[in-house]
Write a structure and sequence with these properties.
The chain has helices at about 50-60, 95-100, 105-120, and strands at about 10, 15-20, 30-35, 65-70. The protein is an alpha+beta fold and about 130 residues long. The strands form two sheets. The protein has a two-stranded antiparallel sheet. The chain has a two-stranded parallel sheet with strand order 3-4. The model has no long low-confidence stretch (mean pLDDT about 90).
Amino acid sequence: MAKNLPPLHFYNTLSGTVEVFTPLSERSVKMYNCGPTVYDQQHIGNLRGPILANIMRTTLEAWGHTVQHVSNITDVGHLTGDNSGDADLGEDRMELGARKQGLTAQEVAKKYTDLFYADLDAVGIDRS
């Protein structure tokens, strides 16, 4: 722990209590968060997860932890029925986006991944 900082506390959703954070390893904290499905341009609500993950990461680093942080990019498998509560209904969002834009699914994924990274840079999220 960094000098002169109080113990770091987090709300544990499993126990329903606020607890002192104790990493599994003294050397590093491993952290994962879900990234976007890149079939369209992100909106500010889509950036909530990456912003919160960045806050968590920088907080852990301020407390002296080394953080190994990974985030995914989803480019297949999310169906249009996801919003209706039935994830098995509808068309793949990447294929739908590709058809609407006259591109391949790979081109759509690249286009919106690049835009997503530009958005992260614009709001000051460290992607290293």
